Amino acid sequence: MERAGPAVLHVAVQGRRGQGTGSGVTVSPDGLVLTNAHVVAGADSLYVTAAEGRPMPARLLGEDRDTDLALLRAETSMTLPAAELGDSANLRVGQLAIAIGNPLGFSSTVTAGVVSALGRSLAGRGGRPIEDLVQTDAALNPGNSGGALVDSSGRVIGINTAIIAGAQGLCFAVAANTAQLVLGELVRFGRVRRASLGLTGQREAVPRRLARAAGTEQETGVLVTAVQARGPADLAGLAPGDLLLRIGEQAVTGIDTLLRWLTAERVGEATELLLLRRGDPRRLRIVPGERQG
């Protein structure tokens, strides 16, 4: 608490939807602050307040709705206390987890619990699942969003993001390693680059005999329901009704696995698709483009 507490700020938002509040975590002494994208959504003006009560104007540098993270810059010439982002890959179920935030305006509020589960995923606001979430039973309240989840050494292991309404002890944080990756992208580009195939689809069962004919044992794939004109899928020859089974070395068992594969490094990288078209195995080459918006 002594290490991370001073780095957790109150975030005040004013915009077309009225006023809102949340929390944020200072991650560099020059005023870079991580918070949730849903906290700053629709903001016309932003202010952050340090633990000792010093308000500062802030500006939005970038946001990534797919991970519900946003990066702010506190407009101050002062050096701010900064938290250390830990390595969330080293987390273990059952270890201590401490949530620090500003729920309901009570600054530097601390709740404690344990890491309940790792690698959870929830549907994000952009449709893409938020992956690698840390589940905890440390109580989160309105205003905790964007605050820090820390370990017993005061290292930030996650950015608090969501609770399950009506449930007790089901709280989630974006893992620190994911936050570190998003932070780097937002600093460099103001956004997070991701690849796109230019299609929409849905999970579909793969008949066992057709799966065997294609040389796979997987039970589900992605049925293409629409193809964007002149998009990567269209240029590759994909059509509605095709059943995707594999992209590169990745088995495509659902939309979530397909989206997980479409990271920034896939943009412009030609790869092979395995699919079923009217029951017949086909292989096509596709070059993912960069997702817009």
Number of strands: 20
Mean pLDDT: 90
H/E element order = EEEHEEEEEEEEEHEEHEHEEHEEE
Largest sheet: 6 strands, antiparallel, barrel
Pairing-aware structural class of the strands and helices?
A: mainly beta
Ends distance: 38 Å
Query: Can you tell me the residue ranges where pLDDT is under 50 for at least 5 consecutive residues?
Result: none
Cα Rg: 21 Å
Share of residues in strands: 35-45%
Write the layout of secondary structure elements.
Elements: E1 8-15, E2 18-28, E3 32-35, H1 37-40, E4 43-49, E5 55-64, E6 69-74, E7 96-101, E8 109-123, E9 129-136, E10 148-150, E11 156-163, E12 171-175, H2 176-189, E13 195-196, E14 199-205, H3 208-213, E15 220-227, H4 232-236, E16 243-247, E17 250-251, H5 255-261, E18 271-277, E19 280-286, E20 289-290
How would you explain this protein's 3D organization?
The structure is a single chain. The radius of gyration is 21 Å and the shape is elongated. Strands 1-2-3-6-5-4 form a six-stranded antiparallel barrel. The protein is built from five helices and 20 strands. The chain is mostly beta strands. A hairpin with a 5-residue loop joins strand 10 and strand 11.
